[in-house]
Request: fold
Amino acid sequence: MRAEVSTLFGLNVYTDKGVYVGKVNDLVLDPNESKISGLAVGKINPELFNNTNKGVILPYRWVIASGDIIIIKQMAHSFKKDAKEPEKESD
Reply:
């Protein structure tokens, strides 16, 4: 998938299930590979992330398509954990 880097700024990000994730604020570039390695997403959906920061970085490998919007794979295990579920302690 090739696109000009500048066309990605400001695009809304949705999952492949149609859930709004946030808006692209910046990109994480890998200069050694000459490719995008992540999307810095702001205005994030608070229902998806346990994150009090202003944004998250999503791996670019999750991107399925980009155009007028960006569609990423639904990665349920990477998003918000259920508050009712206690965290397991490791031995």
Observations:
- The chain has no helices and six strands.
